[in-house]
Specification:
By secondary structure, this protein is mainly α. Helix content is 75%, strand content 0%. This is Cytochrome C oxidase subunit I.
Length: 285
């Protein structure tokens, strides 16, 4: 029997049905109604961090061009934010923005987790595989957690601006050189730098606790957002020194990658993204 092309109305109805089914699965996945206990966290060591970074480098080498293309928007957005800061006399927020990349990093790496997962399963990963996240039942939970990290980033910028206003402000700096000189040579500048660094560490720790293994776990297993976040916190509580060391490594690599006009992030973000997937594999049974 010859096949015919369906009319636009039937095509739309089929699309709406598929979308509705996917939405229903997504909502059901967020609640963790079928999960009775948390996944078991393993004890980690420095060898696990080294292995994860090495495996991340291997994944990056195997799909270098695809991974770099996938995160190309990351430094572009960063540069746009910095240019906007310069034009809007928001110089004091440039460093907090760069530091804030550690908070937003897990969001940018979600597609990389999918690529590492496919390579681990024996498939040849492509950058298009990263968009398989959209079809995942966990997509809604991933969006919610991403919104949480984005909100944390915005709150961090507001807090950093308040610290500047209470120290070197409230007037904006007249130039970048004058601002840098004031930070280094004045008592208020040192107070701003120390207070900002300490508060930034608190925000980074909050982001680390909530997202250490949450995103990979959501993609890998049928758990909801509460279970994923609770498991991430459980891993951190069981391995505080190792996890904080991992956070320091991530933050340091992001700062190093941000130095050459953020271009280094095209390499740093994929390596860290792939490495995070392998760390998740070692952290959660």
């Amino acid at each position: 029997m010859a096949k015919t092309i369906g009319n636009p109305l039937s095509w739309l109805l089929q699309g709406a049905e598929t979308t509705g089914q996917h939405f229903g699965k997504t909502v059901g996945e967020m609640g963790s109604s079928d999960v009775t206990e948390l996944p078991q966290a393993r004890r980690l060591s420095m060898d696990d961090l080294i292995h994860s970074l090495a495996a991340g480098l291997e994944d990056f080498a195997a799909c270098r061009s695809d991974a770099m293309f996938l995160v190309l928007f990351y430094p572009v957005i960063g540069i746009a934010l910095i240019v906007m800061s310069l034009s809007m006399n928001l110089l004091p927020l440039i460093v907090p923005m760069i530091m804030g990349f550690a908070i937003l990093g897990p969001i940018a790496a979600v597609g990389l987790y999918e690529m590492s997962s496919r390579r681990e399963a024996g498939f040849k990963p492509r950058w298009m595989d990263a968009f398989g996240v959209i079809r995942s039942p966990a997509f809604g939970a991933i969006l919610v957690l991403g919104f949480y990290l984005a909100a944390l980033f915005i709150i961090w910028l507001v807090a950093a601006d308040m610290i500047y206003i209470r120290t070197l402000g409230p007037e904006p700096p007249t130039s970048m050189l004058g601002f840098a000189t004031a930070v280094v040579t004045t008592r208020e500048g040192w107070i701003m730098a120390i207070a900002g660094g300490a508060l930034g560490a608190v925000f980074a720790f909050a982001a680390l606790a909530m997202s250490l293994v949450s995103f990979p776990l959501l993609l890998d297993r049928h758990v909801g957002l509460p279970v994923a976040v609770a498991t991430s916190i459980k891993v951190l509580r069981k391995n505080p020194v190792i996890c904080i060391t991992w956070g320091v490594i991530v933050g340091s690599m992001l700062v190093i990658g941000a130095i050459p006009f953020l271009v280094g992030l095209i390499i740093v973000v994929p390596v860290l993204g792939h490495a995070t997937w392998h760390l998740y594999r070692r952290a959660v049974k």
